[in-house]
Design goal:
Extensin-like_C; 4 helices; alpha+beta; 9-stranded mixed β-sheet; 21% strand; 11 strands
Length: 267
């Protein structure tokens, strides 16, 4: 009996020694065909392919009709001067002692020209105009009258130390161009022979340029310039005094342009 117990104890000890400390875990069984896979996070559903609709054909673009070309207005015709009026004008110039010559008709195209131009070197026996000025007789007659009636007497009062007036210096008579020498716009009155620009007055004792004066300028020279600016409109229908705009800072523009109702533009 004792021998049986000892043999049983020895077999138990041998079995315990042969067993590993961490017996292997059994491998999971593969899922059977009829078993559902283990639950996991839901997979996103596949987006169905969008059906590409065929692009609609673009409507045919209708060509816009070209805008009709508007022809530029024809240039104004050269003014035909009345012979009797012209003869009376030149006769008065001769009475004033003016020196001038008659020129052939000027036609430079684009409306530029003078029907009966004259070229003047003296406004009177006492006062020359330099350089020689070409314009219509009416334009130069008005300047000769203003020199006799206004400029010379006013200078004796406003510029008493300058002596006698000898020369009127002109900056522009006839010239074919647009107003203010612009590339476009209306034709200048210079292009019709209706305008003359005065740059300065030469006296026995020196040159007095046309200049900008303000109301705060209170000497006699400024008073003389203001007198010319104002009184010139009694002789000319357009007067642009020095400083009237950016293109008239060092001269006085004078012209005999005809306006409706005898309107005059003086600045």
């Amino acid at each position: 009996m004792l021998r049986l117990l000892l043999l049983a104890a020895a077999l138990a000890a041998a079995t315990a020694m042969a067993a590993p400390d961490n017996p292997p875990l059994p491998l999971p069984k593969p899922p059977q065909a009829d078993q559902a896979p283990a639950a996991g996070p839901p997979l996103p559903a596949e987006k169905p392919e969008e059906r590409q609709e065929p692009a609609a054909p673009e409507p045919e673009k209708k060509e816009e009709p070209a805008a009709p070309t508007v022809p530029a207005p024809p240039p104004p015709p050269i003014e035909t001067e009345d012979q009797a009026t012209f003869d009376a004008c030149t006769a008065e110039l001769k009475e004033l002692g003016a020196a001038f010559k008659l020129l052939p008709r000027i036609d430079d195209g684009e409306g530029c020209g003078i029907d009966k131009p004259i070229a003047m070197t003296r406004l009177s026996a006492d006062v020359a105009i330099e350089p020689e000025a070409t314009a219509r007789c009416e334009t130069l007659l008005q300047l000769a009258r203003m020199t006799r009636d206004l400029i010379a007497p006013a200078a004796r009062l406003g510029l008493p130390d300058m002596g006698r007036l000898e020369v009127v210096h002109q900056a522009s008579g006839y010239v074919c161009r647009k107003r203010n020498s612009a590339d476009t716009g209306k034709i200048s009155e210079h292009a019709r022979g209706n305008a003359i620009d005065i740059a300065g007055l030469e006296f026995e004792k020196g040159l007095v340029p046309m200049k900008i004066v303000g109301q705060e300028d209170s000497d006699l020279a400024a008073a003389f310039q203001r007198a010319l600016n104002a009184a010139a409109c009694l002789y000319f229908t357009t007067v642009l005094s020095p400083g009237s705009d950016g293109t008239h800072e060092d001269h006085m523009h004078l012209d005999v342009m005809k306006r409706t109702g005898g309107y005059r533009y003086c600045r």
